UniProtKB/TrEMBL annotation:
Superkingdom, taxonomy of origin: Bacteria
Transmembrane stretches, start-end: none
Taxonomic lineage from the root: Bacteria, Pseudomonadati, Pseudomonadota, Alphaproteobacteria, Hyphomicrobiales
GO molecular function: FMN binding; riboflavin reductase (NADPH) activity
Keywords tagged on the record: Oxidoreductase
InterPro entries, per the entry: Flavin_Rdtase-like_dom (IPR002563), NADH-dep_flavin_reductase (IPR050268), Split_barrel_FMN-bd (IPR012349)
Name this protein carries in UniProt: Flavin reductase
Domain Flavin reductase like: 1-147
SMART domains named in the record: Flavin_Reduct
């Protein structure tokens, strides 16, 4: 799995006015029309049960400079301060959308499939926000954060 290069996202949700979120690389486009995507969430993650109850989540695609945010959203000790220091809003659902990310996909859960340690949540996209023109993603490979700046500049 360390050889699988992936974009990095923050998956968020909310319950009783409280925001929750975690870093994730297991995010995949399923269908373009209607727009549908999936996320794979470990059952041990705090966010797992909340997505299950709330029935919605937002996928925020991280940009090259967001590695600090990815670290914070994957560190249990920083759970209470994960949303600090950045601007968040909401789109259709109550899930936090990260202003300044590459894109936010607000989703309603349409199906969930339990697979061993993880649940695959399939989300119907209810809103999309493209926050920036320049698309240079944060990527994760072999346990390290990197960027695709070269590829973006060639485009
Ligand atoms: C780059 C990166 C990618 C990750 N991808 C996933 C993922 O796709 N699914 C998952 O369940 N956990 C993933 N994790 C682990 C969670 O972010 C981490 O366990 C997080 O602390 C869970 O949230 P919690 O502390 O609120 O339980 C990833 C962590 C990192 C650093």
């Amino acid at each position: 799995m360390r050889r699988l290069a992936s974009g990095v996202s923050i998956i968020t949700t909310a319950e009783n006015g409280e925001r929750h979120g975690m870093a994730a690389t297991s995010v995949c486009s399923v269908s373009a029309d209607p727009p549908t995507l999936l996320v794979c969430v470990n059952r041990t993650a705090t966010t797992h049960a909340i997505i299950g109850r709330a029935g919605f989540f937002c996928v925020n695609l991280l940009a090259e400079t967001d590695d600090d945010l990815a670290r914070r959203f994957s560190s249990a000790t920083e759970r209470a301060t994960r949303f600090d220091g950045r601007e968040w809003t909401t789109l259709v659902t109550a899930a936090p959308a990260l202003i300044g990310s590459l894109a936010s996909f607000d989703c309603e859960v349409m199906q969930k499939i339990d697979v061993d340690s993880h649940t695959v949540f399939i989300g119907r996209v209810t809103a999309i926000e493209l926050w920036r023109e320049r698309i240079v993603p944060l990527v994760y490979l072999d346990g390290r954060f990197d960027t695709l700046r070269g590829a973006a500049e060639d485009a």
